[in-house]
Amino acid sequence: MRxxxxxxxxxxxxxTDLRRIVGQRxxxxxxxxxxxxxxxxxxxxxxxxHIPVDIIDKIVDIxxxxxxxxxxxxxxxxxxxxxxxxxxxxxxxxxSDHYLKLNTDAQRRDHCPx
Length: 114
What we know:
- By secondary structure, the protein is mainly α.
- The protein is 54% helix and 4% strand.
- It has four helices and two strands.
- The protein has helices spanning 26-40, 53-66, 73-99, 105-110, and strands at 10-11, 67-68.
- A two-stranded parallel ribbon has the order 1-2.
């Protein structure tokens, strides 16, 4: 995982009408969200809505500690929406790139992605 060494928090905008991360620094935040989601999100749940709230809160807290985001409802909604989308893409990619390519559960256990 790549570490960002910043003395100042990166500012990112999430417009009220879009509820998506946009702007010059948006890709940096999206990339970091992907790293955080892969580190802290469990795979033993059926879908994003079954992830415990304390884990989602921890992910949001980490993001707020690294980026300068206003503490407004539409920002939090947009952030959680991005987390949800990134989690689903990650799980789908794991399923297609790893799970479906092997025939038995024993093979899948022996070849777990790291």
